[in-house]
Amino acid sequence: MSEHENLERYVEALGLAALDLWSELPQDVQQRLFEQAVLRGHKSERDESLREQLAQFLHSHHERTGRRDAGQAGAV
Fold it and tell me: Domain residues for 30?
């Protein structure tokens, strides 16, 4: 495997592990991870809605996140 392939593998594994454990993470850790994901994932003007898309994804896939006040979009 090339160094780039290894990096992609590690990033995917860590990302999936974070998703698996998301509901168990303290809210402040969730918020920090969420904000970092928005920063890292924002690559162009097309990504302006990334914050909302990530919030919707997390709310629909994780019970504890989904129960939070819908008025806190982005405050995952």
Answer: 3-72
